[in-house]
Specification:
By secondary structure, this protein is an alpha+beta fold. The protein has a domain of about 130 residues: Gcn5-related N-acetyltransferase (GNAT) (Aminopeptidase), CATH 3.40.630.30. A hairpin with a 2-residue loop joins β6 and β7. It is globular and about 40 Å long. The protein starts with 9 loop residues before the first strand and ends in a 9-residue tail after the last helix.
């Protein structure tokens, strides 16, 4: 997925200086959205602390921006350190942006980022009732297992190629231009 719009939004990497915009997105999640993202009900304070932790570490975050606000996000957190081969992924999509292909596009972007950073294993956890996330994961080849009241998914991204590295670099450059010129809507096909 390139910078193409989804319902008018654009997917790009979320920079550390945009921590507040990311936090605001998480705070806008409905109670059901918070439960889906965090596995249970969480307070505003928890979200504030989570947003601070995300950008203090080696996480990679992509967001769907809609003329300023983030409406959906995908987080990739290295497990055991930035240079380990496993990363955990998590997603959050605001209610009005559900069922629009946003989760699928975000997972594709995260998979490419994982691939280009030498991650050979992505893991994810979701609640059994989060059928949307299970479908998105399955579309990307995840192996799903139900155990202990949760659904665990594993995806094995392929090794990086010159094309995957080039595509990420082009998307990163386009994202920088979007920020610099405040152009949130750019139509481009992959």
């Amino acid at each position: 997925m390139s910078q193409s719009g989804l319902k008018g939004g654009v997917i790009r990497r979320v920079g550390g200086s945009e921590r507040q915009v990311f936090r605001d997105h998480l705070l806008r999640l409905s109670p059901k959205g918070r439960r889906s993202r965090f596995g249970g009900g969480v307070s505003d304070l928890f979200i504030e602390q989570h947003a601070a932790r995300v950008f203090a570490g080696a996480a990679v975050v992509y967001g769907l921006f809609d003329e300023g606000p983030i409406r959906a996000a995908a987080e990739m957190h290295p497990v055991g350190g930035a240079f380990e081969a496993t990363a955990e992924v998590a997603f959050s999509v605001e209610d009005d942006w559900q069922d629009a292909g946003v989760g699928t596009a975000l997972l594709g972007r995260v998979m490419r980022a994982a691939r280009n950073r030498g991650k050979s294993r992505l893991i994810m956890t979701c609640l059994p009732e989060n059928v949307r996330m299970q479908r998105v994961a399955s579309k990307h080849g995840a192996k799903l297992q139900w155990q202990e009241g949760d659904v665990f998914g594993t995806i094995n991204p392929p090794i990086p190629t010159p094309i995957s590295l080039w595509r990420e670099a082009m998307d990163e450059g386009q994202g920088v231009l979007n920020v610099l010129f405040d152009r949130p809507r750019i139509e481009a096909a992959e």
